[in-house]
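hey so u asked for the seq, here:
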Amino acid sequence: MAQSADRSMESRVGRNKQRYGPQGERLVAGVVPLSADKTKVLVIQSTRRGGWVLPKGGWETDETAAEAACREAWEEAGAVCRVEYDLGQIAEMRPAEQLTPQAPKALYQFFQCIVDREEPQWPEMYKRARMWMSHAEATQALANRPELLEALNRSQIVR
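ran it, structure tokens below
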């Protein structure tokens, strides 16, 4: 699934269209954005906690999980990507003390994507840097986010 030509330069904000699971958990869609040869993964800077994360965000009522994941790759990383396959659901792994009203308990749905191109301008370019990392580099960078590390390890990135 390629990102549509009419990508917005505005990130979606608010939670009025946010989907929630049966236990009240926020449903989040994310991507493991790989290079065409699958030797690198594109990571982004976290705006809340510093460090590096995978593109992810709220899955909204007017889109499929795959569409939400590709939208997040565009908004957060400026990546135009296509879904290769569904990596499945990953339950929240953060300890309770890391959960906040701004970052509540979540259920993640991740997709492996191939990045077709990176745009020079994207909605969150002034809030986030992006960087390509090897599996070993990303494993170290995502060490404090076990749910993201699990998504990376489910992908076909070259180890």
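Residues 47 and 104 are 16 Å apart (CA to CA). The chain is about 20% helix and 30% strand.
lmk if thats what u needed
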